[in-house]
Amino acid sequence: MNATFDMPVRIRFAHCDPAGIVYFPQYLVMTNMLVEEWFNERLSIDYAHMIQARRVGLPIVKLECEFSKPSRMGETVTLALGVTRIGRRSIGIEIVARCAGEVRFRAAQVLVTTSLESGQSIDIPDDIASALAAFAPHAVQSEEQRS
Fold first, then answer.
1. Contact, 141 vs 86, CB < 8 A?
2. What is the pLDDT of residue 91?
3. SS3 string of the chain?
4. Which residues, in sequence order, are CB contacts of 81 under 8 Å at separation 6+?
5. Strands 90-99 and 56-57
6. Is 90 in contact with 145 (CB distance < 8 Å)?
7. Cα separation of 75 and 7, whole Å?
8. What is the pTM of this model?
């Protein structure tokens, strides 16, 4: 991974389980928020417009997670998103959550551009593909490699 998009997240009461640590599904809520902010802030693609007006979705089709150390209410974790692969219809990303230099959570995801009308995968729209390539030129797959 070369370029990353970083976002601090303060751990709130709502993120935690009765043990006082982040309930693991909450990390996935945080990663979805991170992807949305990455589109809005770094890629300059209005995520709400993409979903509501353009009817282009970006569901997770593959997910691998590793939970290294618990995070607690009041801590601030920094989520870092990097792109590992850009295909014809899919984007591979890696997200790492750190607090005080320690890795707390790591996720590898594959996102697929999808028509929200048909529910079928679609080619990554040109403006999104261009923004992705500018953010992570190392991750663009050749025509033979693209899927």
1. yes
2. 98
3. CCCEEEEEEECCHHHECCCCEECCHHHHHHHHHHHHHHHHHHCCCCHHHHHHCCCEECCEEEEEEEECCCCECCCEEEEEEEEEEECCCEEEEEEEEEECCEEEEEEEEEEECEECCCCCECCCCHHHHHHHHHHCHHHECCCCCCC
4. 4, 5, 6, 7, 34, 35, 38, 93, 94, 95
5. unpaired
6. no
7. 14
8. 0.92
User: Which domains are present in the chain?
Assistant: 9-139 (3.10.129.10)
Tokens of 128: 């999104």
Residue entry with tokens 């693609």: 45
CA distances from 42 to 24, 34, 105 (A): 27, 11, 22
Residue 144 pLDDT exceeds 70: no
- Distance between CA 100 and CA 50 in Å, rounded? 35
pLDDT in tens, 64-74: 999 999 999 99
Do residues 124 and 111 make contact, with C-beta atoms less than 8 angstroms apart? Answer: no
Summarize the confidence of residues 136-147 as an average pLDDT: 70
Q: What percent of the chain has pLDDT over 90?
A: 91
